[in-house]
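Can anyone check this?
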Amino acid sequence: MAEDSIRITTRTKFQVAMALAVCADVPQIVIFPLFVMGAESPVDDAVDAGVGVAMLSLLGVHWEFLPSFLGKLVPGVDLAPLWTLAVANVYRKSKALGKVEPRREEP
């Protein structure tokens, strides 16, 4: 690997995925319900589709993302932070399997 290349670690991918999930869930819980609920909101659905694609590219295929995407289509269920919960669950499972490297103390 070249010295000037940037290495993106698994931990960094999870941090980006969590930030994206929180940034997607907060408006969907606070702002979007003021306008239209559930499957009737095209903006909400577009955000979910974009977040779903981003999660798949960042973390790979995990079954936790399917209920998160489909749960947003049901009125009332979409008020839970499903993307954030899905990323937290994937992180928890990956850490238990040893796929996430421990945090290193930098000098």
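Reply from J.R.: I decoded it. Residues 10-96 form one domain.
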